[in-house]
Amino acid sequence: MGSDEPEQATTEELVVRPGGPGDVAVVLGLLDGATRWLVARGRVDQWGSAPHSDNPRRIAQVRRWAADGELYVAELANTAASVPVGALVVGGAVPHVPPATEPELYVNLLVTDRAYAGRRIGARLLAYAERLARERGLDLLRVDCYAGGDGALIRYYESQGFTATAPFTVQLTDRRWPGQLLERRLG
Q1: pLDDT digits 0-9 by tens, 2-60
Q2: CA-wise closest residue to 111 among 130, 125, 92, 95
Q3: For 14-185, CATH number?
Q4: What integer pLDDT is reported at residue 79 of this predicted model?
């Protein structure tokens, strides 16, 4: 999840480690916190208002990410105890976006703890995703995001070096969800 607040420079060391089944509750907690933050700002159209930790479909999705080795957890290294401050999931593209015309790494989830806003955690996780793509010999990193509201999330990803490519719409049970596909060339 991006932010509409400017991110400030930081010297804190962010440790990104592979996540696993033991991190499912951590990721669900980060998602719940981000949802509370969105709801407090009247932005319920992005993820709704219900906790992700109560949603069987979302729980199964996070478990799958953790089991498939697609999950990475970010922790600040200079805190007294290891405190998870963000999560990243990379892998193949989701079915509701146009397929890539070349091999890619797709950011399926980026979420940060809003209590640590301004520490560039999202930007640093995206840099980690870029590193993973380069290590795999890939020149394309893609992500999608919510395209409604004031467009702040699209602007966030553009500020991180992504270019908006294709808008799309997902039909949910109660509404249509506007999305935007973005890409960053690494070559």
Answers
A1: 444 434 444 468 899 999 999 999 999 999 999 999 999 998 889 989 999 999 999 99
A2: 125
A3: 3.40.630.30
A4: 58
Contact status, residue 58 vs residue 52, Cβ threshold 8 Å: yes
Distances (CA, A) of 141 to 87, 160, 186: 17, 12, 7
Task: Provide the percentage of residues in the chain whose pLDDT is more than 70.
Answer: 91
Cβ–Cβ under 8 Å, residues 164 and 154: yes
Smallest Cα–Cα separation from 172: which of 58, 33, 48, 39?
48
Going edge to edge, which strands form the sheet with 163-171? 14-18, 71-76, 83-91, 105-112, 140-146, 176-185, 163-171
In b/e form, how buried is each residue of 143-157, taking b as 16+ CB within 10 angstroms?
Answer: bbbbbbbeeebbebb
In whole angstroms, give the CA distance from residue 121 to residue 7: 9
E strand or H helix at 85, and its extent?
A: strand 83-91
Measured CA to CA, the distance from residue 75 to residue 58 in angstroms comes to 22
State how far the Cα of 145 lies from the Cα of 95, in Å rounded to an integer. Answer: 14
Distance CA 30, CA 45 (A): 18
